[in-house]
Amino acid sequence: MLLATFFPKLIGFRACIPRTLSATLSSSSSDSTTSLNETSLRSLTLDEALKLTDPSRNVHAAHCLLYYKTVDDDVEGMFGLCQVRFDGQLGFPGGIIEPEELDSVSAIVAGLQRELKEEINFAVKASESDPDGSNGFSHISTYIDDSLNQPGTSSPRVNIYHFFMKQISEQEFKHCEVTHSQSIHFPSESLGIFRIPLIDPSNCRDKTIFRYYKKRGSFLVNFFKHYFAGIGKNQLYDSLVYLDCLTPDYLAQLEPYIRKCI
Q1: Confidence (pLDDT) at 153
Q2: Running DSSP on this structure, what letter comes out for residue 15?
Q3: Where in the cell is it found (predicted)?
Q4: What confidence score (pLDDT) does residue 126 get?
């Protein structure tokens, strides 16, 4: 019924809406911004991204959506973790990956874990370590943004965004909510975290904890109207496809708010 059921190999590329489709969708961006976005953002595989290691030309960043599953009155839903950044924009915890952390996927994950500890005081338990070094992190998408590499720039460079997800327990999630202000980058980089419901409005029954999320246009549609840093909306959209928790019709309502790419 849901998109990921039919197109599992499109995860990480789903937010790249073709221009023919994007032309039919309304956009909250100006015409000039949309034109820039459509010519500057594209999807990469991790293998392709790992070849772009020149620190003078490529800036890598990794971010993560931590989430947990819960059930109320036989209705399954999920909550994800988002943060308010120092610049007032919304985003997900993570940050710059150092050049020495770009020799493998496991090294990128290690850099991401360092950032999670520094920003929101979240540490992966040692018992979760596994042979491939993923520590339970699932890669969702990698995008390259050429918008900084425009004609006339003196030192052309590109931003490369890696995004991961990790399912944690409800106890771990709530512990992070309570202790995130103890991180070394609070409040210099992160001003606080909050939870976002990852559930389709059709599942928000009246007698469950999800009952309010379908009111006044539904939570996610309204949430996507906020100002996100970088390509945070694309990353959240890709995560929703990966989780297979929304109907195609509801996903289509979110598409006008994400950046288009080639």
Answers
A1: 60
A2: T
A3: Nucleus
A4: 65
Tens of pLDDT, residue by residue over 10-19, are 444 445 543 3
**Is the confidence at residue 147, as pLDDT, over 60?**
yes
Quick one: DSSP state of residue 228?
B
DSSP letters, 71-135, are: EETTEEEEEEEEEEETTS-EE-SEEEPPGGG-SSHHHHHHHHHHHHHHHH-----GGG--TTS-T
Joined tokens for residue 166:
């990790």
Cβ atoms of residues 145 and 161 within 8 Å: yes
Average pLDDT of the chain is 84
Q: Which residues contact 16 (CB under 8 A, 6 or more apart)?
A: 41, 42, 43, 260, 261, 262
CA–CA gap between residue 260 and residue 169 (Å, rounded): 34
Nearest Cα neighbor of 50 from 38, 62, 35 is 62
Check whether 219 has a pLDDT greater than 50: yes
Is the model's pLDDT at 38 over the cut of 70?
no
> What is the rounded distance in angstroms from the CA atom of residue 148 to the CA atom of residue 59?
11
* 162 and 54 Cβ atoms separated by less than 8 Å: no
Cis peptide before 187 (omega within 30 of 0): yes
CATH for 3-257 is 3.90.79.10
